[in-house]
Design goal:
By secondary structure, the protein is α+β, with helices and mostly antiparallel strands. It has 7 helices and 14 strands. The protein is 22% helix and 24% strand. α5 runs parallel beside α6.
């Protein structure tokens, strides 16, 4: 891999990633107030479940932000959006693979300092019917990210990976050993992504093996209050960029979805 370029002038840059499980529902629960209060450089949202034409003007074009969308062809399904305070040099929806791109799962924003990839990985489903599709998506994602690395670019991949990497990343690993999101094949791919291919799990890089750190909880009563969750939402960085990550945390206090936002701050 080529070493990423030395030019990096951003400092104190906050990036946010959140699976909103329906952007309109999250808006009714205060998404706009959250965005105004956080004032991030960029906010990446997944599972928006809406076409931008169906959104209110305030949500489609938030004040002080450039808004970009990659909706799914199927109504009310999947889709990602990125709101950024600086106009990117280039915006690319998708992976360049039609079978994935029709589901609105990827949005790439290319800035001078780094490439921000917003992704909503497929769910392999309760009966594992989409496991092959998911692993093919993962392979296509890795090829894309490695192309950026070979070109000397810094890259951040954020979003809902729909995979809990290790037993520490969910409250009940033994009971979920054969469940979607914790299947051996899914975990093995994510393990190779970090260990063999060198991508850095930003949260674990900064917080180590801190237990009880989750980003998704079932809507069943009392589950979130008891913190019976899964960590399936991530920021990953190329190793050249990792030293510039100043902070990573889960905004578990933020409601409005069954997921919570993940926050990452970069230093110059």
């Amino acid at each position: 891999m080529r070493t990423a370029g030395p030019e990096f002038k951003l400092s104190g840059v906050k990036l946010l990633s959140w699976n909103t499980n329906g952007l309109r529902a999250a808006a009714r629960a205060g998404f706009g107030d959250w965005l105004d209060a956080e004032r991030p450089f960029a906010a990446c949202v997944q599972e928006i479940k809406v076409h931008p034409d169906e959104l209110s003007p305030k949500l489609r074009n938030p004040a002080r932000y450039h808004a970009y969308f990659a909706p799914a062809e199927r109504p009310g399904y999947s889709g990602v959006a990125t709101f950024t305070r600086r106009e990117p040099l280039r915006v690319v929806p998708g992976l360049g693979v039609p079978e994935f791109d029709c589901e609105g799962r990827v949005l790439r924003l290319e800035f001078a300092e780094f490439v921000l990839v917003n992704a909503y990985f497929p769910n392999s489903r309760r009966d594992h019917a989409r496991l092959g599709y998911k692993l093919a998506f993962c392979a296509a994602m890795l090829r894309l990210l490695n192309r950026y690395r070979r070109a000397g670019r810094n890259v951040l991949l954020c979003g809902d990976y729909n995979i809990a990497h290790r037993a520490i990343d969910l409250a009940n690993p033994r009971q979920n050993a054969q469940n979607a999101g914790f299947l051996p094949e899914e975990r093995a791919w994510l393990g190779r992504f970090f260990a063999r291919h060198g991508w850095v799990d930003a949260f674990r890089h900064h917080r180590g093996d801190e237990p009880g750190q989750y980003t998704w909880w079932s809507y069943r009563p009392g589950v979130r209050e008891r913190n019976v969750g899964w960590r399936i939402d991530y920021f990953a960085a190329n190793p050249e960029l990792a030293p510039r990550i100043a902070r990573v945390r889960h905004q578990s206090e933020v409601r409005g979805s069954d997921h919570c936002p993940v926050e990452l701050v970069l230093r110059a």
